[in-house]
Amino acid sequence: MRRTVTVAAAAGAAWLARRALRRRIRTSPLWPLPALETPVSGCSPRRTLRALVVSRTEPAEGVVELTLEAGDLPPWTPGAHVDVVLPSGSTRQYSLCGDPARAGTYTIAARLVEDGRGGSRELHEQVTEGMELRLRPPRNRFPLQPAPAYVFVAGGIGITPLLPMLRAATAAGADWTLLYGGRSRASMPYLAELAAYGGRVTVVPQDEAGLPDLAAALAPAAARPGTLVYCCGPEPLMAAVTEAAPDPAAVRLERFAATGPQAASHAFTLTLRRTGTTLTVPAGSTTLAAVRAELPATPYSCEQGFCGTCKQRVLEGEVDHRDTLLTDAERAESMLLCVSRAQGGHLVLDL
Fold first, then answer.
1. pTM exceeds 0.85, yes or no
2. Helix, strand, or coil here: 172?
């Protein structure tokens, strides 16, 4: 009898140990490293959502709009975007441009980029109505902050994150104007929806009116203190808006592309403090590639320095920051592995 009780107790202890092990693996993105209650670097695994493409339309030349539905889609706020896992397994980021009040529904739109990395072509040519897509929950690096007035500036498909902002600003009773530029009217989506706002919206197709007058568009920001400027579009447009704004600190930008060619790179060594491993990052490779060769579960997404998924804490060394996301305060203690490197010869990461 005593032996039976001992065997049963041992079996129960083994079952509890296996369950604890499975729980630890699920909660630690860097297994077999120690799991932390509050991660100090990296990202905890984010659940994958599955949504059905219930509608596919073309609101403008070269633009496809997808409406996605699922019962468990998390809520979101204007300015948010989602990571979409394409059929090939590639991940791309798209702004949510629908109505946050419509629970269980996301709307995204994308322009076909002929010379891009292939994600937009895949979305245009392979994603069809009735297909199921995998998503990651929304993130918002471009939130609409409370203000008495706004100036919105959009270039082409950059109108997508601003659409929910216009609705929210209107509902809040804020003064706002929108300058919307594009190559031609045929290439500019959502013109019919924007027409309902009347004189608040200025549409400038380049083939009809040339380049927009940014000084005139930003004049309300100069006339009314506290006005925030929100801009999304091609990099030259965002640079021009920042330069022309009366107060550059009031400008909020959203970008989904790298800002240009990276500077020349040199090889350096990289120590992962928690593993005790020292790696070499070759001149022609990335910090992310070196880390993932050692820790394959290290999270990443855009590989262009703007989504923040691969952000890690830096313990020692000077970083050559090449991202377009982190604030000065964040750069003081962290880096994005996909684009940033060592300024000198060595870095130590909290990995």
1. no
2. coil
